[in-house]
């Protein structure tokens, strides 16, 4: 089979390797595609802790496809089942997953891409955010995750203020339900604008969905006294500083919404399947770019550089 190998910083190749065999309690998935995650960008840059070359298919963890082999002791799954998989070498034509780490995709999703991990992540972040009808919610950073959270919050009856850098992203936020959009270009102007929009009270919930220092600083400023700050951005490039004096004075709750419990992650994927299959959530406009496996490097560069019109890249195999 073909699988991507990261040879060094910014260098990717496609290698011919043996097709993996499923062990007991596992299934093998013939992959249709895999989403490209921003968490890949630090390894792509080649930090000191990275070891090269990577294992074939490594870094890919947003795969979906069809089961083509079943290991011993697996019940409830069969060859031919179309599934989303939480596995970790999905930049290739096949990957192996634990049987309890795949979710069947219903007929309503036939032929549609379904990167289960990020969709499930969005569902779990929304659950952790405790967003309810009547609240004012600011979402700082409208990419794939921020757009989905905008839709979920709007559907819950919240008033969403979207803050993002690119005009394209703000257009997406409006299409996904944001009633107010603010360009993320001036720290103090944004604070004053949100203050005016909320009659000086600021926001019941603020979701930081960028993963950088300034958006985190800004998010803290936009939370009302006694509100909740939800950290959904993936902060992987070093320590952060926070204004603890302000956080103390406001008495805010700070929620790190990244889940590490595999059972919780799988429940999020199941919730996402239900939401998309039922029509409550349509993520298809967010899959803006598709690349063949041989162009995974370009997909990673686009995820880093975010050209106009870009939100989410998929690699098809």
Automatic annotation (TrEMBL):
<dbReference type="Pfam" id="PF00107">
    <property type="entry name" value="ADH_zinc_N"/>
</dbReference>
<dbReference type="InterPro" id="IPR013149">
    <property type="entry name" value="ADH-like_C"/>
</dbReference>
<dbReference type="InterPro" id="IPR011032">
    <property type="entry name" value="GroES-like_sf"/>
</dbReference>
<dbReference type="InterPro" id="IPR013154">
    <property type="entry name" value="ADH-like_N"/>
</dbReference>
<dbReference type="Pfam" id="PF08240">
    <property type="entry name" value="ADH_N"/>
</dbReference>
<dbReference type="InterPro" id="IPR050129">
    <property type="entry name" value="Zn_alcohol_dh"/>
</dbReference>
<keyword id="KW-0479">Metal-binding</keyword>
<keyword id="KW-0560">Oxidoreductase</keyword>
<dbReference type="GO" id="GO:0008270">
    <property type="term" value="F:zinc ion binding"/>
</dbReference>
<protein>
    <submittedName>
        <fullName>L-iditol 2-dehydrogenase</fullName>
    </submittedName>
</protein>
<dbReference type="InterPro" id="IPR002328">
    <property type="entry name" value="ADH_Zn_CS"/>
</dbReference>
<dbReference type="InterPro" id="IPR020843">
    <property type="entry name" value="ER"/>
</dbReference>
<dbReference type="InterPro" id="IPR036291">
    <property type="entry name" value="NAD(P)-bd_dom_sf"/>
</dbReference>
<keyword id="KW-0862">Zinc</keyword>
<feature type="domain" description="Enoyl reductase (ER)">
    <location>
        <begin position="10"/>
        <end position="231"/>
    </location>
</feature>
<dbReference type="GO" id="GO:0016616">
    <property type="term" value="F:oxidoreductase activity, acting on the CH-OH group of donors, NAD or NADP as acceptor"/>
</dbReference>
<comment type="similarity">
    <text>Belongs to the zinc-containing alcohol dehydrogenase family.</text>
</comment>
């Amino acid at each position: 089979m073909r699988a991507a190998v990261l040879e060094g910083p910014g260098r990717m190749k496609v290698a011919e390797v043996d097709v993996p065999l499923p062990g007991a309690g596992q299934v093998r998935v013939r992959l249709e595609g895999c989403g490209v995650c921003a968490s890949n960008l630090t390894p792509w840059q080649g930090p000191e802790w990275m070891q090269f070359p990577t294992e074939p298919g490594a870094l890919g963890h947003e795969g979906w496809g069809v089961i083509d082999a079943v290991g011993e002791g697996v019940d409830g799954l069969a060859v031919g089942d179309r599934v989303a998989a939480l596995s970790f070498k999905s930049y290739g034509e096949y990957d192996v997953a634990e049987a309890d780490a795949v979710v069947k995709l219903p007929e309503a999703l036939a032929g549609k891409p379904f990167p289960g991990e990020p969709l499930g992540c969005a569902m779990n972040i929304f659950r952790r955010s405790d967003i309810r009808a009547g609240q004012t919610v600011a979402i700082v950073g409208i990419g794939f995750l921020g757009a989905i959270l905008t839709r979920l919050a709007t559907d819950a009856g919240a008033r969403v203020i979207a803050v993002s850098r690119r005009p394209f992203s703000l257009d997406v936020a409006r299409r996904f339900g944001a009633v107010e959009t603010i360009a993320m270009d001036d720290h103090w102007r944004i604070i004053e604008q949100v203050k005016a929009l909320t009659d000086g009270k600021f926001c019941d919930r603020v979701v930081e969905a960028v993963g950088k220092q300034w958006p985190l600083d800004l998010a803290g400023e936009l939370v009302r006294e006694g509100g909740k700050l939800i950290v959904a951005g993936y902060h992987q490039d070093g320590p952060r500083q926070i204004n603890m004096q302000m956080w103390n004075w406001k008495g805010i709750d700070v929620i790190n919404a990244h889940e590490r419990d595999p059972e919780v992650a799988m429940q999020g994927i199941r919730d996402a399947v239900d939401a998309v299959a039922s029509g409550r959530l349509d993520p298809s406009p967010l899959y803006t770019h598709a690349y063949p496996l041989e162009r995974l490097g370009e997909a990673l560069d686009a995820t880093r550089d975010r050209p106009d019109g870009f939100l989410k890249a998929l690699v098809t195999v």
